[in-house]
Design the sequence.
């Protein structure tokens, strides 16, 4: 007996040693570089979203736009985003994730060059729409591709690179606008602001050729030899490539069966309403009004052009810092805690902003401008710490496996649809009174706080099965 126990113990030790060899503590250099390159789609997503904020006044003047037309000009990219997010899945399945990312890179490049060379307002709308297609596609395909090439033990951290890059892209867009403004380029300044995106877009396109095809997509296409080569370079969960391929095949077969399950039925009412609510509240905070019109808001509060652009950089930096802080603690403190803290911060900052606009109107003093800056910094910190960090995690956790992809698509559609409406309407409302716009957002955040306290379930540390029971899903 002792001899057998000794042999079993020795075999267990050998197995543990082999497992350590097969499962390195850190992702391979090939996997890490491939994930970073794919995440550039997220960086361009953030950059494209925020870069137009520095051009709105010039575009309104050059093309003689009404407030309604200016809002539509900014929202045109968001209309493209809705279309891109909805339609990206099919070409990704048919032609591959990397190929679709290459097309997205081309859309970013065409949009940047086209906007820089736009010959009239209609051509500008067209090229902004193309950029929106790229943003929508990247929001779906970049994290999907990274998830598929990553072993499970690295997946969360590597997919998070995309979220980090989106926020970093927003900061870079604000900084780029401020830098270009220092050159006093006159009437062509807006063209440079929109056109500079061509450089990272071109880099994204060429770097993608260094990335492997998704092993999961290759297995789905029965290109097993290529999938095996890719997994050998990228790493596996099991340490055995053939075992990994068999698991991928089983998961694909299960997905084919699950696609027959309709999303819109009574048993999924609760997760559907929860997804729609959190996505709608995300935009009813007015976050995209700040992202797209930050310099204009600061000018309304009495800041000069350069000062307004520099204050926008502060907004982007605060967004980045508090996003990182929230991602670091979201699994320790839970989703509701972050949402409650964020909602309270929203209410205080938006109320202060609205009151300041009502008090000073169009005749701001230095004190009034400082209050607006501090309030909006608190606002962006509240968003990054709360809604910005929670929304996509929460939506991915409330739907069962069999309808999760379609549930996330519904949440994404609601988010972008509301973003287009808020972005389109802000200039019209702000023309009447900046106070009205921010007061409306503040009221919406009071409703969000009530929703979080009374309705939103906590999803931290709850298994899928328990979550289904909690939401009454059979």
Sequence:
């Amino acid at each position: 007996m002792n001899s057998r126990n000794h042999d079993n113990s020795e075999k267990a030790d050998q197995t543990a040693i082999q497992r350590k060899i097969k499962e390195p503590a850190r992702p391979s250099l090939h996997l890490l570089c491939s994930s970073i390159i794919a995440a550039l789609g997220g960086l361009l997503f953030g950059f494209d979203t925020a870069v137009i904020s520095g051009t709105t006044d010039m575009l309104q003047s050059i093309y003689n736009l009404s407030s309604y037309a200016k809002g539509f000009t900014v929202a045109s990219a968001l209309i493209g985003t809705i279309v891109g997010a909805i339609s990206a899945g099919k070409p990704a399945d048919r032609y591959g994730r990397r190929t679709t990312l290459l097309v997205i890179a081309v859309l970013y490049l065409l949009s940047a060059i086209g906007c820089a060379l736009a010959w009239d307002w209609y051509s500008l709308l067209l090229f902004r729409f193309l950029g929106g297609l790229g943003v929508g596609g990247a929001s779906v395909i970049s994290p999907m591709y990274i998830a598929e090439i990553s072993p499970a033990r690295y997946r969360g951290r590597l997919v998070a690179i995309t979220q980090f890059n989106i926020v970093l892209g927003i900061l870079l867009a604000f900084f780029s606008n401020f830098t270009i403004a220092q050159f006093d380029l006159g009437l062509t300044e807006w063209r440079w602001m929109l056109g500079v995106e061509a450089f990272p877009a071109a880099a994204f396109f060429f770097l993608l050729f260094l990335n492997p095809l998704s092993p999961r997509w290759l297995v789905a296409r029965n290109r097993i030899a290529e999938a095996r080569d890719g997994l050998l370079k990228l790493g596996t969960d099991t340490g055995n490539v053939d075992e990994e391929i068999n698991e991928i095949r089983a998961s694909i077969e299960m997905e084919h069966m699950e696609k027959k399950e309709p999303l819109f039925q009574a048993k999924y009412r609760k997760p559907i309403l929860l997804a729609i609510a959190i996505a709608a509240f995300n935009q009813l905070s007015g976050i995209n009004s700040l992202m797209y019109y930050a310099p204009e808001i600061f000018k309304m509060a009495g800041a000069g052009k350069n000062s307004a652009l520099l204050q926008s950089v502060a907004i982007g930096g605060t967004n980045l810092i508090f996003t990182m802080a929230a991602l670091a603690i979201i699994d320790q403190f839970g989703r509701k805690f972050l949402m409650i803290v964020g909602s309270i911060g929203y209410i205080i900052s938006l109320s202060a902003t609205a009151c300041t606009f009502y008090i000073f109107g169009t005749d701001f003093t230095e004190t009034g401008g400082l209050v607006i800056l501090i309030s909006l910094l608190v606002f962006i910190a509240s968003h990054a710490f709360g809604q910005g960090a929670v929304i996509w995690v929460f939506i991915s956790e409330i739907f069962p496996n069999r309808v999760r992809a379609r549930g996330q698509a519904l949440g994404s559609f609601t988010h972008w649809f509301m973003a287009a409406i808020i972005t389109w309407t802000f200039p019209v409302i702000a023309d009447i009174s900046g106070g009205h716009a921010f007061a409306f957002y503040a009221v919406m955040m009071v409703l969000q706080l009530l929703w979080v306290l009374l309705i939103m379930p906590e999803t931290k540390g709850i298994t899928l099965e328990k979550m289904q029971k909690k939401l009454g899903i059979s």
